[in-house]
Amino acid sequence: MAKTEHYFTQFESNAFYHVYNRTVDKSKLFANHGNYLYFLKKLDEYLTDFVEIYSYCLLGNHFHLMIRVLPEKTIKENLLKYQTANPDRILSSSKTKISEKSVSEIISHQFKKFFQAYAMAYNKQQNRVGTLFQTPFKRALVEKTEYFKSLVYYIHANPKLHGLTKDFTTYEWSSYRRILIETNSKLKKTELLEWFGGRDGFLEYHGSEKDFKNEKDIED
Fold first, then answer.
1. Which of 32, 81, 89, 194 is the most interior residue, by most CB within 10 Å?
2. Residue 93: what pLDDT?
3. How far, in Å, CA of 184 to CA of 165, rounded?
């Protein structure tokens, strides 16, 4: 089972987190190709003004993200711009001034709105009603730099761990292949590759089998 603290961890500026969640009844989160694309589109719309995305993997009934929360000053500046451009997506339950809102409150709210936006569209398409995602969503603080590479590998290897493919490097809905493409992207490719000592180190690390019994427990 997920560790208790992963339900209540507070988001802090400049910190790294493993964010993961699944559907309420372990049913499908993605029914077709378009659903995966729409999930990534909404992730961009709701979150990339507030967090940096280092790696991700979208699976049948759950997802994994590795993110870094932006500095508090940047978050609040972007929130002001975001609310001006998107008045329907503001922190409507609170009249608190932006300067008084906590980083954790802002990030949690943006994730909540992201989940709601995806769920509404998915439910309508699939003729489904009710909650789609488990709440609260799970997040684990990544404190040790030596765990960064391990977590990135774990996220990318998830399709193989769950029996979806024999070769996770060919899986379409993870950041593995996108990291290796030399094009501009909001995905933090350069920074991530530096953790592995460059492209060759990234490929070598992902080319060896790892034992992730403990990590796999956190998403059940």
1. 89
2. 47
3. 28
Confidence of residue 88 (pLDDT cuts 50, 70, 90): low
Strands, E assignment, the chain = 16-22, 51-58, 62-69, 138-142
CATH class of the structural domain 5-217:
alpha beta
52 contacts 43 by C-beta, under 8 angstroms: no
Are the C-beta atoms of residues 176 and 199 closer than 8 Å to each other?
no
Instruction: Give the strand order in the sheet containing 51-58.
Output: 51-58, 62-69, 16-22, 138-142
Report the percent of the chain where pLDDT is more than 90: 75
Has residue 7 got a pLDDT over 50?
yes
Q: Where are the domains of the chain?
A: 5-217
Half-sphere exposure in the Cβ direction for 143 (13 Å, CA): 3
Token pair of 190 as six digits: 């350069």
